[in-house]
């Protein structure tokens, strides 16, 4: 799988011409099913110079799934994180 970044309107965002974005090294990582690989993708996103632009674009396009701008998308929306221990559930358990 490869990601075409040539049409991305990001002039002046990257440090030097040809500098790779973190997602170009292992594109499959951003669409992984294991939680360890998803967390690894999110960690790489935190260091990316275009993270905010990537997230805004994914929200605008309603990306169906994957890690975009450091957030996990599901059905076109950012998936909320796991609930911490001790927090009440949204619905009661029978």
TrEMBL record:
Keywords assigned by UniProt, alphabetized: 4Fe-4S, Cytoplasm, Disulfide bond, DNA-binding, Iron, Iron-sulfur, Metal-binding, Transcription, Transcription regulation
GO biological process terms on file: cell redox homeostasis; negative regulation of DNA-templated transcription
Main location: cytoplasm
Record text on cofactor binding: Binds 1 [4Fe-4S] cluster per subunit. Following nitrosylation of the [4Fe-4S] cluster binds 1 [4Fe-8(NO)] cluster per subunit.
GO-annotated cellular components: cytoplasm
PROSITE patterns membership: 4FE4S_WBL (PS51674)
Pfam families registered for this protein in UniProt: Whib
Chain intervals for the UniProt region annotation (Disordered): 1-21
Residues of the 4Fe-4S Wbl-type domain: 22-78
Binding-site positions, [4Fe-4S] cluster: 23, 45, 48, 54
PTM statement from Swiss-Prot or TrEMBL: The Fe-S cluster can be nitrosylated by nitric oxide (NO). Upon Fe-S cluster removal intramolecular disulfide bonds are formed.
Intracellular or extracellular location(s): Cytoplasm
GO function term, MF aspect, one: dinitrosyl-iron complex binding
Required cofactor names: [4Fe-4S] cluster
Function: Acts as a transcriptional regulator. Probably redox-responsive. The apo- but not holo-form probably binds DNA.
The family this protein is said to belong to: Belongs to the WhiB family.
UniProt xrefs under PANTHER family: TRANSCRIPTIONAL REGULATOR WHIB7-RELATED, TRANSCRIPTIONAL REGULATOR WHID-RELATED
Cross-referenced HAMAP family: WhiB
Name under which the protein is recorded: Transcriptional regulator WhiB
